[in-house]
Amino acid sequence: MSQFLQVRDLHVTYAAENGGLRALHGVNFNINQHEFVSIIGPSGSGKSTLLKVIAGLLEPTRGELIFNTQNDQPARIGFVFQQANLMPWRTVLENIMLPMEIQKIDPLVSKKKALELVELVGLDGFENTWVQDLSGGMAQRVAIARALIQEPELLLLDEPFGALDALTREQMGEELLRVWQVRKTTVLMVTHSISEALLLSDRVLVLSARPGRIYDDIAVGFPRPRTDQLRYTPAFGELSQKLKAAILPG
Ligand SMILES: Nc1ncnc2c1ncn2[C@@H]1O[C@H](COP(=O)(O)OP(=O)(O)OP(=O)(O)O)[C@@H](O)[C@H]1O
Ligand SMILES: [Mg+2]
To answer: Cis peptide leading into 42, omega within 30 of 0?
Structure first.
């Protein structure tokens, strides 16, 4: 498997009144092409900061990111935030098409892509619904479709299902796996849930408490396709315990 991203010696210090606030301190890891990687770690350990740096929304204080893209083009990156951040006065389809509209892409082209995505994320029949009328899970589906419309090589998700109830959350996890398999993107997802990380990922990166650094890098070797039954196996229990010990050391 070829490497897609190398994160090298990443430091982020936010300006603060009494000196700087160190959010990340010497973060190093690699992600392979089409890998599904989760990040887990205590609150304030710099997980959102890390995603923002990778998305190019925040300049690191030190360190570098090396993307292995075709013809050295800038990496195409999609971002799904914890809150769906949709535009309530627009319909489902109009929200999904927004990134294309900003780039002044032919509306006929973007509408065709948006309709394909509506189907992919299971929103058939809701194309013309105002997003203010959607449930939390449906709104996150729109956010995922919007992030996918520019065919990102890397999909960043920051606790995408954190605000959903447990059953919807499980269902959305399964749907994300399906989307990842169909679209063949690379995924980097922040989550607070150990079982979600283990059910979905190829690898879990554990961040230490602030300032964040990679405390552990745990391979999740369960064969795919994975079903919910995996949760009840001894191997899953063992890996959950290992992950919990890494998150709460000592
Ligand atoms: N724009 C900012 N200016 C100053 N400090 C910030 C800024 N954004 C984040 N921080 C601080 O940096 C640290 C890391 O924040 P970050 O949001 O990356 O953590 P996190 O791991 O995503 O936490 P959570 O699990 O609660 O979402 C925190 O102490 C936070 O208060
Ligand atoms: Mg965060």
So the answer is: no
Q: Which residues contact 136 (CB under 8 A, 6 or more apart)?
A: 84, 163, 164, 168
Is the same domain home to 16 and 131? no
Q: Which protein residue's CA is at the shortest distance from atom 30 of ligand 1?
A: 44
pLDDT confidence of residue 250: 65
Report whether residue 191 contacts ligand 1, using a CB cutoff of 6 Å.
Answer: no
In a domain, 135, yes or no: yes
Q: Confirm if 198 and 239 have CB atoms less than 8 A apart.
A: yes
**pLDDT tens profile 137-176:** 999 999 999 999 999 999 999 999 998 999 999 999 999 9
43 lines ligand 1 (CB under 6 A): yes
Residues 15, 132, single domain; the answer is no
- Please give the number of the atom of ligand 1 that sits closest to the Cα of 190: 22
Domain end residue (candidates: 133, 151, 169):
151
Position 82 scores a pLDDT of 85
**Overall domain count for the chain:** 2
In this prediction the pTM is 0.96
pLDDT < 50 regions, the chain: none
Domain hosting residue 117, numbered range: 86-151
* Among 22, 47, 188, residue to substitute to test ligand 1 (most atoms within 8 Å of Cβ): 47
